[in-house]
Amino acid sequence: MPNRRPKESPLPVDAAARRAIAPVVCYPVATLPGLPDAVIAGARSGLILRDSVTIPPRQARCFRARAGQVIRIRSVEGPQVGDLNLWHAHDLSERFFSGKTRALHGTHVTTGDRLWSSLPHLRPMASVVADSLDWYGIDDFGGAVHDVIGTRCDPYTHCLLSDGGQYHQCCHSNLTRALAAETGLSLSDAERHIHDVLNVFMCTGFTRDTGQYFMKASPVRPGDHLDILAEIDLVGALSACPGGDCGSEHSSDSAPCFPLLVEVFDCDLTRSWAPAPINGYDRSHGA
């Protein structure tokens, strides 16, 4: 239970009426460029394996995919969640924008949802084209799979909450080391590019009584996979979280952890795929 002060403000006479006001969706998505069924079908057809990378437990590795290729993240040995970062392969300043993806598609993503890039680019950088866990839906606790809520486990929060503990296998550090190794950047320069993640296979939600972010044991099992179409040239980094299936804790060596597999495929779309242009806003900002 969070340490919260008792409520001090008196209950207004119209409290019930204020609470009963119906919500309004912040971003109506009728005009949002969707992912046509033909694109999903093309991304699932003619798959030819071009590369694969094994992500060791409590570690991270980078991978690359060209625009029009399909990235498959697969459970191979046991229930394991992964923290995913994505960047434009030719410009690391364009990276996955989890907050805007959440605002446009919801707290969790599945087939047909797009992963949007950061401002000022704001364009689809990847899209989910297959999800073997789409059957899970939203459970009785409000939990669902593949969230764009969590920030990634990191050594700074671990230090804060563990009285100065130093743990280096947190996903933030894992991703930092992986990007540094892939690009030749120093650790300090690589760390500046690490960003909020897509929590692949992680089952999360918010408690109804306190509004706290929760995790629970992931329903992922060996063979389950999430397939993502690269809409621009990408470099990605995936961390096999030290929390394993995140059913008990993360940022420790106590949870059983397993590897993840990343596979990169050509598909029927690969040769003809044209990336979306960067966002058309003129950046004058009314000046």
- Write down the overall geometry: globular
| Helix-and-strand structural type | alpha+beta
- Main sheet? 7 strands, antiparallel
What is the ordering of alpha helices and beta strands?
Answer: HHEEEEEHEEEHHHEEEEE
Distance between the termini: 47 Å
Beta strand count: 13
Q: What is the mean pLDDT?
A: 95
Strand content: 25-35%
Number of helices: 6
What is the number of domains?
A: 1
Radius of gyration: 20 Å
Poorly predicted regions are none
Helical content band: 10-25%
Write up this protein.
The chain is of the alpha+beta class and 287 residues long. The protein has one domain (52-272). It is built from six helices and 13 strands. Strands 2, 4, 5, 8, 9, 10 and 12 form a seven-stranded antiparallel sheet that branches. Strands 1-13-3-11-7-6 form a six-stranded antiparallel sheet. The longest helix has 13 residues, at 171-183. It is globular. The model has no long low-confidence stretch (mean pLDDT 95).
In short:
With 287 residues, the protein is α+β, with helices and mostly antiparallel strands. It has helices at residues 15-19, 37-43, 98-105, 155-161, 171-183, 187-191; strands at 48-55, 60-65, 70-75, 82-88, 91-95, 114-116, 124-131, 144-147, 198-206, 213-216, 225-230, 234-240, 260-266. It has one domain.
SSE diagram, text form:
Layout: H1 15-19, H2 37-43, E1 48-55, E2 60-65, E3 70-75, E4 82-88, E5 91-95, H3 98-105, E6 114-116, E7 124-131, E8 144-147, H4 155-161, H5 171-183, H6 187-191, E9 198-206, E10 213-216, E11 225-230, E12 234-240, E13 260-266
Antiparallel strand pairs: 1-13, 2-12, 3-11, 3-13, 4-5, 4-9, 4-12, 6-7, 7-11, 8-9, 9-10
